[in-house]
Amino acid sequence: MSASKKPDSQKGDGGPAAQAPDVPRPSVSSAQDILQAVVTEAADELVRIFYDRFLQHPEASAFLSHAVVHERLSTSLRAWLIDLARIGDTESFADRQRHIGEVHARVRIPIHLVLEGAGLIRSRLITLLKDRASFDPTTFADVVLLLSQRIDHAMSLMSRAYVTRATKGAQADEAFRLFALGQDIGLERESQRAALMEWSQSVVFGLFGEENARRQQPIMNSSFGLWLRHRAGVMFQGTPAIDRINETMLHIDTVLLPKLVEAKAAGPAETAPAIEALQSCIKTIKLLLADLFQSVAGLENGRDPLTRTLNRRFLPSILGREIAMAQKNNSPFTVLMIDIDHFKRINDGWGHSAGDVVLRQVAEIILDAVRLSDFVFRYGGEEFLVALVETAPEGAHQIAERIRSAIMDRSLLLPNGETLHVTASIGLATFEGHPDFEFVVRASDQALYRAKRLGRNRTEMA
């Protein structure tokens, strides 16, 4: 083919350029092009206006006054503006907005400040668009409508993610509150098993008594059902067993209880199979309930059952609180990330029971090396996170080296009577003002990986 390639504007049927090729194409041909051009040109100005305003804001300044946050957010806000104005992968755009909303919730920025900031950007952009005298009223309206749709969509996605994250955070805070108040998980378990059995027995007795079976209380409305919805949802949030128990209870209320009513009317021959089906469901719930409480066996003391270190579930509540205190009091705060070197070799060579014993003894070493005011978490399989309160980098490095040396020097006793020596790598990061606790956790994790790359059995500072 020797014909020259058509410009993009002439491709397809019915396009303006295809109908009138002799008419010059304007430099900006759509609301999308105009919006993208204006935002790109004004991005730096918008970022400056945003921070000038919010650094003076009585609420927002607490989140924006630190230089590190300011520099990071300036770059991020500019990128967000450019992203907002261009056409791209809509799903990727949505994912980015959700991520931003989750970060806002984690840092605990009030959602009204986010919406206020979006309103400031919207009004400033509309002013800039008005200053472009070349726009006819219809084009101006189209661009403003597109701008509003984009901002509203982004705020909707952020707000939903914010609420979801904030709700989970509130549940974790409540769980930590219950732990701090010394709730007895063993007593809770036995109380709910008794409540379940009491409901089950009341149904069976109702079948053989004078009481009308139709008046039997649904299990969803029983003491056990109320506990499962309102308390267990906090204690065991995100646990699949919760959903399975709810499904089983729904089956009991909608299928089995009506069958029991029919069985009582039909006579004893029909009653036995109906009761057997009910007892089978009750047994399923009891097993699932046992699994739930087993999964948080250390929750009574807020600790991992194997190592007796703190349960990672409470890490957001504790670190979030300590970060806030460090900001308020201008006090140091340091995080250690500790990983047992070549731990997989222990499991492969001596078995998982040996690995568990090693984890327990290493945890004891770490706990012995820190103060009662510090926090030690089981962070992962063979990883521990140590939060050293009011501890500057120099002092934290000394503690880290003391832990590392103690682990290296200790002869660990295995179940078969053999002894084993292990080493550990440690990453250290100090709070430098960023309000998101994950910032310092990531920094300590990166320092840990650097320690491993440099040969293991060493401490590296972020």
UniProtKB/TrEMBL annotation:
Residue span, GGDEF domain: 331-462
GO terms for biological process, alphabetical: cell adhesion involved in single-species biofilm formation; negative regulation of bacterial-type flagellum-dependent cell motility
Enzymatic class: transferase
Gene Ontology terms: cellular component: plasma membrane
EC number: 2.7.7.65
Region (Disordered): 1-27
GO molecular function terms attached to this record: diguanylate cyclase activity; heme binding; oxygen binding
Domain of life from the UniProt record: Bacteria
Recorded catalytic activity of this chain's protein: 2 GTP = 3',3'-c-di-GMP + 2 diphosphate
Comp. bias intervals (Basic and acidic residues): 1-11
Name the record gives this protein: Diguanylate cyclase DosC
Organism this protein belongs to: Chelatococcus asaccharovorans
Organism taxonomic ancestry: Bacteria, Pseudomonadati, Pseudomonadota, Alphaproteobacteria, Hyphomicrobiales
